[in-house]
Specification:
Length: 82
């Protein structure tokens, strides 16, 4: 089994050929996302959970559910609309 996914920005091991989603990087919508497969998404959320224990309440990472993140490639960018 391959441990890579060409669509995923994560460092792997990835879900090969699996669906990827957009995980927001900050608190401002549409100001940066990372594209991750399910495995990399779960590792990133685990990192965020651990880091949130060290951060103050005013600067913690958001922990969205996989189902709540947009599927990469299924939404047109607002700037791309005419």
């Amino acid at each position: 089994m391959s441990e890579s996914n060409a669509m995923c920005d994560g460092s792997g091991p990835c879900v090969p050929g699996g669906r990827v989603r957009l995980l927001p990087l900050g608190s401002i919508p549409d100001h940066g996302n990372v594209i991750l497969c399910r495995a990399c998404f779960e590792r990133e959320l685990q990192y965020r959970r651990e880091r949130n224990m060290e951060l103050g309440a005013d600067c913690q990472f958001k922990l969205p559910a996989w189902a709540d993140c947009a599927i990469y490639g299924e939404q047109a960018s607002p700037s791309a609309q005419v």
